[in-house]
Amino acid sequence: MILTIDVGNTNIVLSVYDGDVIKFTSRLATQASKMEDEYAIDFINILRLYSCEDNEFEGAIISSVVPQIMPALMSAVKTVFKCRVMSVSAGIKTGLNIKIENPVTLGADLVCGAVAALKKYPMPCIIFDLGTAITVTALDSNGAFLGGSIFPGVNASMQALTSSTAQLPYINTSEGEIRTIGANTADSMRSGIIIGTACMIDGMIDRYKEELGEDATVVVTGGISSMIVQYCKKKVILDKTLLSDGLLMLYKMNSKKS
Fold it and tell me: Residue 158: CA atoms inside 13 Å, Cβ hemisphere, count?
């Protein structure tokens, strides 16, 4: 089995693959202050929860956008799983033709999403990753990584809105009625945050296709993606495991057995 770990600014997503099939996925809160032993205990508890043995793992691979967490996380994985551990960093084989100005600066999460999309979907492709930040990336008809856009995520937007205004409360975006014309303050905020994000996706799809000069596959992933895509009017593919799948592909690509 292979363990993939996707470290985001808010959550750490762990997926266990048996071959190409996900056995289970679990989430932890991202906490840069945690020590190696604390992460090791988390891993052991998750294995117990899903009746999984630590000696069943061939290898693990980690992608992180939080660099300071990596030493403790890498050590914890090696301690618990006693297997080969890779990280998505400079020097790893990706198979991508990266055309941005400085390829070394490309985020590990964007690499994982692009690697998976290149294998799973027709090109060209536009990828939306709805996390703490919302990223948009474009792959051209040959699968080359062209670049993209970055927006504040749904929760970041909500925090900015409530912390910068005196009368707008923090609300749970997953509760209550969501409609375009809100009849009260909370519903109006949900309209702006949820439907507004869906409209942003619809609008950016048009702009990206115009710049690409042709139609494109649109893939949406990320923690809050299920909530948002239902309000999109453009045709999109919801792929909740895109980054984890990309991590598995990168592991296989860089494994000696390959």
Answer: 19
